[in-house]
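Q: Here's a chain of 750 amino acids. Please give me its 3D structure as tokens.
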Amino acid sequence: MVLIDGLESLPQVAGMSAASVSVLRQDCLNRLAEFGQTLGGNTSFYTGPPVIDLAPGYISIGGFAVQRGSVITEAVRFRLEAPTTALNAMRVLRGCQLPKAILLEGSPGVGKTSLVSALAALAGHQLQRINLSDQSDLIDLFGSDLPVEGGNAGEFQWRDAAFLDAMQKGDWVLLDEMNLASQTVLEGLNAVLDHRGTVFIPELGRSFVRHPDFRVFAAQNPLQQGGGRKGLPKSFLNRFTKVYLQEHTPQDLLMICKELNPMPTETVEKMIQFNEAIRHATMVDRTIGTEGSPWEFNLRDLFRWFSLLGARNGLELSLDPIEHLHLVYTHRFRNQRDRFAIFDVFTSIFGIPVPSLRPTPFLTPSHLQIGHSMLPRAPLGSSAVDVQVQHEHLEVAESVLKSIEMGWLVILAGDSGIGKRSLVRSIADSTGRPLGEFAMHPGVDTSEILGSFEQQDFSRTVNTAYDAMVNLVDTASDISPDLAILRNDLKMARDACFASLGHDSTSAFLQISQSVLPRVSTLPGYDIALSALQALEKANPASTGFAWSDGTLLKAVRNGGWYLISNANLCNASVLDRLNSLCEHNGMIVLSEKGSETGSPEVIKPHADFRLFMTFDPKFGELSRAMRNRGVELFMNRPESTILDMGVVRDQSLAEHSLLRRLHPGAITEGNASTIASEIAIQSSRGETYLRRLSTGADCGPFIGAFLDDQTLRQATSSSLAVAGQSQHLSADFAAGLVSSSKVAPTYTS
């Protein structure tokens, strides 16, 4: 039965369709029934939906049961009623009847991790999840001698890793991405997974025997999906019971989605039908989406679509699924032909034509809005006054802003130099969010972004706290000018710390900092400064040992910053797969590299404000399918520059659009022309851009007249450009030339 259940994983049926595999499976069952009749007894096979039975002492699915443990969770958020989900769960429990480990295989999004998590929660067992990669070592599973934080120089102590800890306590372990692990890791697991059930630790000179309740699950994507995956040795596979998870059918999706989303059944059915049509066209027929393939369209995409429809902010043009079609589906495709094909499929199913609308950006003191997406801005003074977004990228920017609003991983694909990083930086600047950046390269190791042990340095701890406080004071000084004088006080206190390097020397610095914190608790960067001060309080100036130092990514995860990984496809795919668990719903990351005194590694839940971005150029390869499926992938087209009659390229940056709309020629009168001209000179360093665009209209005479007549405004605008580092200065001759050469009136779409 195990072999029949996993027919899809056999290389002999790799080229067969799902319908053909289903026929083959039925033929196998019929032949197995014929063989069973020769043995006598009951040879019928249970073909209906498995019955789930939750008893006080056991959990049973389809007649196969396991005993329940002591970790009983009152509220279990997993549902197993869908037929395919229940069938997959029954297969897993059937494999649990043997003492062997379970190997789950299936495409991304099929629910391997979620299924094991659900069974562990229902069965009352603690689950330890370990993400493997080709950089994983045995010390990540069993443990190692690690530096004692705050200890003496050269002081090390053995720390159990997650696998060894679970093995002794009787927990369940999930080894994710099994076929990414190195041969060393596989060989080290052999003795644990076979009849011996032990592991010998040379550093300790002793063997550990697995707990009777200890059980190992492993999950992997199919070998042909690439990303550094390799075939596991047959000698290693013999230690597993292999379970192939079938993908959800439309009936499963309908049952799941109706349970989670109170929407009309007809609408839910159409959304599922559309998702299945796109999946079939891209992954089966391959009639669309050849550029950028292979793709994944599964339950995760439907969850995103339903989540967007349920998280309304009042800016939507409609409450229909078409409102978020571009974000979930259209914007990930690489060319217009594929996007038009998506429109045709949507129109054929929903009967609604897809309109062509360009979202309108607005920037207010409290919010940044692009179309139906909106983010709150940090207090005045900590965010930029200009939003640098090109006209051609407004639709993608709207999708990026909505993904940030929902807390999803954003993956931006496009040619080098097209403006992917600039778009993320602009949104971060305009909303006042700290943005960390890291450029990937082929030699990157996970420790560069997650962290590592380093020699303790009291000066580094002081500098970290000082930088965090200075950034916070600079931000707050625009609101409370009296705080600006504290910058010098902080510098003097820091210098005093360096001079004496004692506990007493930090008291003045801590006293000044702690007096400021209550007044800036609502500003971005407060959490960073608070954690830095807490680390300084605990620091011992005389320590010479090692201490764990968080990488830039972990700092953002803990403190709620934004983090941009550029050139994400240049590193080994396993480096990014280390972050898979962080990019999931209710994600987390297990910091096995740090170790723990208790044996259980630190599990980090990301801050509510943490956001992760990735950019890559498809010319150098695609990201792994597992990573692409966990994020919202958006493709940025290279804009086709439109040349105006006056020779100005209309692909310039769109600064504060609320002001630009006020500069529309029809809205300018002699009464408000001077006021608008003043706003150009004061609010933006790109006054020349505004003038060039404004001057293309035939009705801009009142504004240009006011500008020509007001020498002060010309000088103010020229000064603002000079401060911004621009060489051009506006003059009366320049403005007059713009007016005389204007022939084409600008148009604004929304």
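Q: Can you summarize the key feature?
A: The CA atoms of residues 68 and 100 lie 18 Å apart.
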